[in-house]
Amino acid sequence: MVRRFGFVLAAALLAAAPVAAQDEKPVQLNIGGGYTGVYGSGSDRLGSNAGNFTLGVIFNTSPTVSLQGEYGWNGIGKKNIKVPVSVNPIDVPVDSDFFADGNMQYGDLNVLLHPPRSNGSVHPYGLVGLGIYYRPVSITTPSIGFATICDPYWYVCYPAAVPVDQVVGSRSSTDFGMNFGGGVTFKTGEHTSLYVEARYHYIWGPTVTTEAIPGRDASSLKANGQFLPITVGFRF
Q1: 112, 130, 32, 100: which is closest to 72 by C-alpha?
Q2: Which domain holds residue 75?
């Protein structure tokens, strides 16, 4: 699925290049970095702060429309969560430290919309697009024993007590998502500019269906992701 999306993305970008506007550089690169906020239930399970790095290609198809293909990496801060652990499945559990560490990566295709440009050096724009998102997570703990846990953001669901070494480890999920936002470019040269951008990403994550476990009714839990990167970078 990821390979097919890559072929479609490449074809769309190559088709757009020949019709670029004459007053803009037909093809531009963008590179940037900044801060990413993590929102929704994911911030409770994986941390709420992240740094980001982006690298993309922009094809200016007209004075008001551009196409962008972009890769982004967002490192998510480590989260310390208490999980009840018992020496054996029938003993009384004791809250123990578990640590969740992960990141969010994506490849997306966006449409950038520019209002009619003036002769000034400051130009706003909006954008919207779709992408494929990859979210790995690593779970560690110094504890030894048995735990009962069902957490869609850790990609685990054990409604009965299992050894802790079944909970810890590295897992990942690859899902479709969307993003929209906007920014402002500040022209710094004939074909170069500085940009500041804020963008909201929503990811449709996997669903974990669980039987009732202690302290929680049976339910379907979704690992949907919500991220808001604020990025500063250059286009050239």
Answers
A1: 32
A2: 2-235
